[in-house]
Structures are given as C-alpha cells and as structure tokens.
Amino acid sequence: MIGARWGWCFCVGAVVALADPARAGVWGSQPVIGIAGDYYTNPDLLAIQNTAESHGDLLVDAPTSYVGDGYKFTAQPSFRVSNAQGYSSLDSDYEHLNLINEFDGPLSTLIINTGASQDSSLYRDYLLNGSRGVRRDGLSGDINWDRLLTERLECDVDGSWSRVEYAHTTGLQTLVDYKFASLSPGISWAMSERGKLTLSTAVSRYDSLDGLTRSLGGNAQIGFTQRLTEAWSMTATAGYSRANNTAHVEVPEYVVTPFGIFVVFVPERLESHQNGSIYDVTAERKGERWTIDAVVSRLLTPTGFAFLSQQQTYELKATWNASERWVLSGDLRRVTYRQPSTTDTGIDDLRLDNVNLAATWQWTDHWTATFQVTRVMEKINFPSRGLDSSGVSVQIARHFDWKSIE
Description:
mainly beta, 21 strands
C-alpha cells in the first residue's frame, strides 16, 4: 500500500522544488488548533450496533501561503488525532496535505495542485468484527490552465490523476485499489454581465490495481451560469456520458479426460456499458445573513468499486448569521452509488443519508466553540443492510492571526 511516509515525502519534495523561486517572496501562516469531544451511538456503522463510544480529538489546520508578483503558493496541512478510527466523517484519524501553485499572467492562469492523504473510507466489511474503518491512502494531482481569448471568450483545460489504496479489514472485501486519470477541455462565452455559456468534453480511464477491471469513459456537456437577482444565482450543466467496462474473470469448466473429470478455469472477458445523461444544477442565495445552496447532480465517479460508479447527489445547505457571535448551519445530503451489472464486489447499490446541524459561537476574536448534531444512515441493497449512527460533538478552536514568516 502507499505508506503515509511516502505520501509526505511526495509533498515535501514538491515544496523543496519550489523553494528557489519563492526565496524572494513573503511567507505567512494562519493556523487553527482545536480540541473536540464526541459521542456516537454506532461510530463503526456495524450491522449489529456496538456499544456507544465517546472520543477526544486534537485538530490542527496550518495553511501557509506565499504571495508574489504573478505567483502564489499555498500549503494546506490538516490533521486529526483521536483514540479511534471509525466512519470517516465521525471519529476517524486523518492526515491531509495539499500544495497549490498558481501562476497568473495578463491573459492566462495556471494552477497546479498536488496532495497526499491518509484517512478512512465510508465502506467497510459489514461483519460484526469490523470494528475499524477501512484505511485509505491516496495521492492526487491536478493541473488547470485557463486562457482569456477575447473579452467574452475563454478556454480552459483540466487534467487530473489519482491513486488510492485501501488497508482491508478481515471479512468481505468490498473495495479495490485503483488509479484514475481524466482530461477535460472546455470553452465559455460571456453572454452578458449576468450570464455565461459553457461547452466541455472529458475523457477518463479507471483501472483497478489488480488489473482485473477497467472503465473507459467520456462525456460532453453544455451549461450556463446566470445571476437571477442580486441574491440568487444558478449554475447548470447537462450532457451525455458513456463508459465501457471490462472485467477479466476465470470461469470453471468441466473437462473429460481418460483419467477422469477435472475442473479447469478458463479466462473470460466480460463487458458492460454505462450510458446515460449526466447533470449538475446548483442554486445559490447569498444575503447579508442567509446563505442557501441547493445541489442536484448525477455523474460517473471513482469510488473504490470495480468500475466507475454512477453517483446521484441531492444536497441542501443553509447558514444563518443569527448575530455577531452566533452562526447556525445545516446540511442535508443524500448520495446514491449505482454499480454496473458485471461488478463482482458484492455491493450493487449503496445509499448514504447525512444530516448535520451546527451552531458556532464566536467566544472572542480568536476563540470559537462549535456544537454539532449528526445523523448518518446507510442503505445497502446487496447484502440488504440498513446501518445508522447518531452523535453529538463539541469543538473548541483557537484561531491565530496571519503572521509573516521571515
């Protein structure tokens, strides 16, 4: 598997490579350090619920940036250290590091993003002894180039690559290690001060690292962005997607010989297709005190199953600045993953519902306290299971002012 030390070496190497051009610049950092306590009824999302657990956590975010003439570099390390590893959004340990390089010219922008992470997956073996989440180690890279052709016409090209490996617990293996690469060129035209039209295409390749499965995908989309009023805006894209899936399996066959009947395994190639519409619609309202976002989307995405998964998402988020010191927020999200028929992972469809309600109190200029209530529900079609967990957490964080690094 990709060890954590290799991930950190990858990211530290990128920092060293950028050291020379950034010597003349000004560095700065604005860290956040917090402690959290949480209580969950079923943090490991087991079929038969285990005893409720309480945990303590230490959280550190230390964004560091360099800003120069036409160049900006940002390092975003974040850590969570707790006494347990369960569902990724509940009580999991994690270590993340993202490095972002931005080069700005008069008519173009180039952004290079690399990252390494170690956390846990939302999938597990679903057995009674699955007391820990499945560890996930990942490396990723993304490069985006944007060019202004005229006052109204703009083109961009985005390429991305990722590699993910899992440390499986004992029991039924539902995940495959994979690598994924995609390339997406696009063009946009500003119709007016309030509206923009976009056209884009994309090609992708998804390979399981054991070499048994592969998905080759492509799509074309048209979209628009429109400011409806001073507060409301909408972004919508829609198109058609196609993915060709192949799986290499061994099929048992009986062979009659003079010495008896024997079973031999014959290699066979299975194929399937995932064709259909994809879309992403986002409505956003930004006011003095209220912020509301509503999202509906469908796309093909890598999820750790044998092939690309069709991901359907419904989400509603709202934030209310109740006063100068209090901020209330809520997040309702449903995500459904659908697999093609030839998958051999044992899971065809998975539905995830997540509800988060939070209240943040600005104690002082630098201290904040966040109170959160969480409800997670998973529904699996095969094997048929319904898993859920409820929890509460309290987090106290110290925010430091921006400080230049000499």
